[in-house]
């Protein structure tokens, strides 16, 4: 049964396919289209021809009518009748034209219907193909199923029936297949109906087409007939005589024709111009569009290149990102490793630096010792007793006075030479250093700073300012508030220098005044109290001043405070400070104690800065009573100082320290390895020349003696105790006995002593 159905279906399918093919060839869509196109073209052509013929004939007729418009024309009636004939013919022609348009319209409709039919035919064909394909598929499926069912049946036939279920399944499937077949058959019937309807439609269209062609042929024939008729009418109208009129008419016709041709030519030219204009505009637009297109293309190309670059960059970035990610992942391990390495390196460097530091410290200590030795040697070579001279400038008041003329001059090549013109004689003085009036406080201090720093190394130092009243002693030692002298600068220098490693330093300050051989403590509670100088009961042989106040200074502010206090105390004890200061010695005693915490070593140095009383006042004053006593005391102390220095320079075994309070107090700072500087102050005025000569002669003698005895003193210094009890020592050579001098010539006395 299955086989039969399938075969039947196959046959039907074949029939349908053949039918479709036949219809296809019968309809010949392309032929039909061609025929329709030809018909349309022919119609159009006829229409144009008819139109032009009619218009030309009408024009000719109009012209002829105008020519024959005169009442005398014999052909007037003929022309009139001709015109009527023409208008009738014209109305007929219009009717035919309308009919032709209708036919054309009909033709167009029919051709569009043919088009639609053609499309419908295509659809039907596609549907047929589709159904054929589906039928093929169904057929294949059915064949497959049939084969399966046959196999099943064969299996079932081979085996005893055991289950009804399988048979039922096959039946169900068979019913499905039958249903599908029925549906296909229904569809096929519907398609066939559609096909027959279309075929009928096509036949009708063909009939209409034939009718149209026939009508066209009739119209053409009619037109030709009309034309012939018109020509005969014209020849009738103009051919009977009146050759002149005909000739004129034909001429006019020619003229009109010529004008028509010219007008047509102009029209054509205009048309051509318009065409050219149109082409030009189109061309320009095209060129513009092309250039814009080009720009757009270029931009597009740029964008593409950018895109490519960006893609490349993106790839690189991605790659970098991955690398960085890897590095970030590895970073903690690397960091730990680097930190460990850095720690090791730092430890190594620290140990290296510490070793180097140890080495440097060792070298530093060695160098410091060397520096001390060198410094000591330098000071020794310069001489333990040195003499400077400072000439003060002429003051403003002195410049106006008569004896302001200075008799002093300096050697520009040698700063140790001073010339003095005295009573027509030029005297030359050679000292260790001569400071001219323009020398600043700082310049002076730079020359004494090595002596000041010696006391840090444990040396005792004495700096005296010696000279007549008003020669500038106080100015050199104390200075002014904004330009301090040696005292304040020395203390500041000591502060800045006592920063040595391993050493602790303590700086104490005492201020003492010696007036009339009386010792007064300028920093004590009672500055008027008299102090004594005594031997230290510890048996060291050192002298000390019981009750003398020692103030510890730790900063520059402390220094200012202490110096201010001493100044105030000195001023309160007298009525006129200037006069008082001229008649008393002022001592600033600075003690520098050092302790080395590493070695346990101790050092102690003393710096005595002494502003001596004026050296000449005694002689000039002619004083008596209290003034005489002052003068005697000053004379005594200055004589004693001269004696001591002379004895030290001359290496006398007996040095008369006890002859005055001043020398007794300074005993330990003037003997042994102690260093002494005498700053001889000189006035530049001619009126003070004799005093200046005395002071300078004394200074030069001191210096000469010193230099000649430096080698022997070095030996002696090394063996001399820093605090000998000179009073008990035997004299090696006869001492220079101070000659009692008249008070008025005190300064001369000094000179005489040493000459
Ligand atoms: N180098 C100098 N530059 C400028 N002025 C100076 C200089 N030396 C001294 N003077 C001035 O000269 C005057 C006297 O100086 P100073 O009082 O120091 O002399 P003196 O020797 O201490 O006197 P006295 O023995 O009476 O104390 C002061 O007005 C001082 O300012």
From TrEMBL:
Xref: PROSITE patterns: KINESIN_MOTOR_1, KINESIN_MOTOR_2
SUPFAM superfamilies (alphabetical): P-loop containing nucleoside triphosphate hydrolases (SSF52540)
GO cellular component: adherens junction; centrosome; cytoplasmic vesicle membrane; kinesin complex; microtubule
Keyword match Repeat: no
Molecular function terms, GO-annotated: ATP binding; microtubule binding; microtubule motor activity
Key words of the record: ATP-binding, Cell junction, Coiled coil, Cytoplasm, Cytoplasmic vesicle, Cytoskeleton, Membrane, Microtubule, Motor protein, Nucleotide-binding, Phosphoprotein
Biological process terms in GO annotation: microtubule-based movement
Membrane topology term: Peripheral membrane protein
Subcellular location: Cell junction, Adherens junction; Cytoplasm, Cytoskeleton, Microtubule organizing center, Centrosome; Cytoplasmic vesicle membrane
Domain Kinesin motor span(s) in chain numbering: 384-705
Major localization listed first in the record, in broad terms: other
Coiled-coil annotated residue ranges, if any: 6-222, 257-327
Region (Disordered) residue spans: 709-737
Residues that hold ATP according to the record: 467-474
Keyword Phosphoprotein among UniProt keywords: yes
Family according to the record: Belongs to the TRAFAC class myosin-kinesin ATPase superfamily. Kinesin family.
Function: Minus-end microtubule-dependent motor protein. Involved in apically targeted transport. Required for zonula adherens maintenance.
Protein name (record): Kinesin-like protein
Source organism of this protein record: Monopterus albus
